[in-house]
Amino acid sequence: MAEQAANTTPRSGAQGGRQQQRGGRRDDRRNQAPEAPKEFEENVIAIDRVARVVKGGRRFRFQALVVVGNRKNKVGVGLAKGADVQAAVAKATDVAKKHLITIPVVNTTIPHDVEVKVSGAHVLLKPAAPGTGIIAGGVVRSVVSVTGVSNLISKSLGSTNKVNIAYATIKALGELVPKDQWLNAPKKKAAKPAAEAKESR
Fold first, then answer.
1. Alpha-carbon distance 104 to 8, whole Å?
2. DSSP β-bridge partners for residue 88
3. pTM to 2 decimals?
4. By CB distance 3.0 to 4.6 Å, which of 49, 104, 141, 183 could disulfide with 178?
5. Residues with Cβ within 8 Å of residue 181, at least 6 apart in sequence
6. Short-list 52, 118, 119, CA closest to 81
7. 12-41, pLDDT tens digit by residue?
């Protein structure tokens, strides 16, 4: 009987230890602080497998094309390679954040038409009335969706290379000029000095 009691005590202790460990895990999960919201939204446009021929054969890697934006007026595109998909996406995101551009947004659309050609890709962007939405497809929609623009008409011509189309879209957004900087923009009337105002009275 004594041997049986001795044999049973370690089991109960082990079970108690397991229960304590499980309880600790649950407490750790409950005590975890909520993650802070991200400033930029990331959107993976394309992931391709690329190969490099070396002496022993082919070395396969992954190439990621990522666009980041804060849905206000900043957007950027990054292209990078990595040993696996996760590493490629992380590198491309860092590249995109280093090359952010600021675009002017007027009443949820762009201020004027713009047309850009990069290599074989040809992109045309036009402003649209409220309620139109984003009329774009593929890569152009992916880039515009992370900006503050919600009404836009676009057309992609020429090459279907996603990288060239993404860079053409970014270049087009970067060439937008705010309305107050147009050549034919109405000039603001300068305020009269206080002395002149008194004399006129």
1. 75
2. none
3. 0.70
4. 104
5. none
6. 52
7. 455 555 555 555 555 555 555 555 567 788
| Residue whose C-alpha is closest to residue 42's, from 94, 5, 81 | 94
Render pLDDT for 132-183 as a digit per residue (tens, 0 to 9).
899 998 899 999 988 888 899 999 988 889 999 999 999 999 888 887 766 6
Report CA torsion sign: 84, 141, 71, 35.
Answer: negative
Which domains does the chain carry? 41-181 (3.30.230.10)
Residues in the chain: 201
Beta bridge partners of 146: none
Q: Residue 110 to residues 16, 113, 128: CA-CA distances in angstroms?
A: 65, 8, 8
Nearest by Cα to 148 from 70, 96, 45: 70
Structure tokens belonging to residue 107: 């009443």
